[in-house]
Specification:
Layout lengths: L8 H28 L32 H15 L8 E5 L4 E14 L2 E12 L3 E10 L5 E8 L3
Antiparallel strand pairs: 1-2, 2-3, 3-4, 4-5
Length: about 160
């Protein structure tokens, strides 16, 4: 004689609990996907780089897009010497033997105060591997001694 089979009901109950749990999980996932379509994004100021774009790379130099970072570093040094209000107003040459770029910064007129800094107009001639028509602009030194360049446009003789 065979013993009575008492485990038939238990596996069936366990299966239906697992099935209910699976249905609840699936419903939760579907609800999460549905609700996520209404999500918004918030840009946090410290985490977003607002200066760069994905399509147009930022030029290394305001004088010419043809200057690389090292060319601009050397030109900026010449700019600081040429535009120094204590300087003699003579042109200051610069060059980068590695890239073949070179140029001269010529101060134009006297230095003048702007805000907390001092500014001076200039003409920049670029030659060598980056030869281009001269440009004119304004260089301003802030309180920390850092020079910035603005108003760069083709020079009109």
């Amino acid at each position: 004689m065979l013993p009575p089979f008492s485990g038939l009901r238990r596996p069936y109950t366990s299966f239906s609990c697992n099935r209910a749990r699976l249905a609840a999980t699936t419903a939760g996932l579907l609800l999460s996907l549905f609700v996520s379509g209404c999500a918004t994004s918030i840009q946090l100021p410290g985490l977003v780089d607002t200066d760069a774009t994905g399509s147009i790379p930022k030029a290394a130099s305001p004088l010419s897009a043809a200057l690389d970072a090292e060319d601009w570093r050397r030109a900026k040094g010449a700019l600081a010497v040429a535009l120094d209000p204590q300087g003699n107003g003579a042109p200051v040459d610069w060059d980068n033997p590695r890239s073949g770029a070179k140029g001269a910064i010529t101060p134009v007129g006297d230095a003048y105060a702007r805000g907390n800094g001092v500014c001076r107009a200039f003409i920049a001639n670029l030659g060598g591997s980056v030869a281009s028509p001269p440009v004119q602009g304004t260089g301003c030194r802030d309180g920390s001694g850092e020079w910035t360049v603005s108003d760069v446009k083709p020079w009109k003789a």
